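hey can u check if this looks right to u? its 108 residues, i copy pasted from the old doc so theres a chance i mangled smth
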Amino acid sequence: MKDVLDGLYGVVLDRKSNPQEGSYTNYLFGKGLDKILKKVGEECAETLIAAKNGDNPATVSELCDLLYHLLVLMAAQDIPLSDVAAELETRRQKLGNLKPMRETDRNT
């Protein structure tokens, strides 16, 4: 999985540095952060719906769309994939990382 994400993030970064006509990634960069965030939100909602419906193939497809748009967001914000990997590794090593639930969390 790491190689796939590294490769895709590399393409996204390349499009940011070397725009190509007709590139959807460049379209997103050109429209700016608001458009990128809108797409992340849309893909998140579509992922949730597919998962709730128990449609695993659709969920996989929507997860791919969401991951791609998250990578575009990371590139737009100059967040390297290595920063996210390091944070995930830090969290993986923690024991007893259960946070106290807020009242709103208890009701869902």
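Residues 10 and 19 are 13 Å apart (CA to CA).
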